[in-house]
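A favour, since you know our structure tokens better than I do. It will help me judge whether the discrete encoding reads sensibly. The space below this message is yours for that.
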Amino acid sequence: MVVVELTPGPNMGWLAALTLREGRKAGFAAVAGITFGLSLQLLAAITGLAALIAAAPTVFGLLHWAGVAFMLYLAWAAFTDGASAVTADIGSERGFRRGVIANVLNPKALVFYVLLISQFIDASTGPVWLQSLILGLIHLSIAATVHIAIVLLAQTLGARLETWRTSLAARLVFAGLMVAIALWIALTPPAA
């Protein structure tokens, strides 16, 4: 699970960009949102809902493309928010909400909880739901730790780039990162 979380992915790129743009408080709020969104995915897996969604290619595909659309929305927001978004104290609530949405719309998280965690379940040793919950909570702890580290690293870098953060160039770079993440998601076929 540690290797999965250390592999670069959309959450890493978005968290770094958000923290550089809006600061540590927004980054930590986004970590909370991501963790909550992943918790919802875990509950969906434990209750069997994730398996139903993964078995329905149309629904799974819709989630995939909704995730792409959401990343493009984040790119647009990064470009159009301007410098005021950096100084305004609106990042926390918005970061949390966007973290939840990005992870609820992430079909790969469903696949992770249904396929990968199930490889470590042994029905003969106890209730499957309890084993799934324990493994899921371990994953959530690892994910939150990695995401907090990303926020702290991005904040350290951001402090050195303070004047650059409010510039048009910064907005273009952040928007470009979000478009790149959207393309990455779009070009990675959903593995249902």
Q: What stands out?
A: The CA atoms of residues 33 and 99 lie 4 Å apart. Confidence is low (pLDDT under 50) at residues 83-90. The two ends are 20 Å apart (CA to CA). Residues 2-187 form one domain.
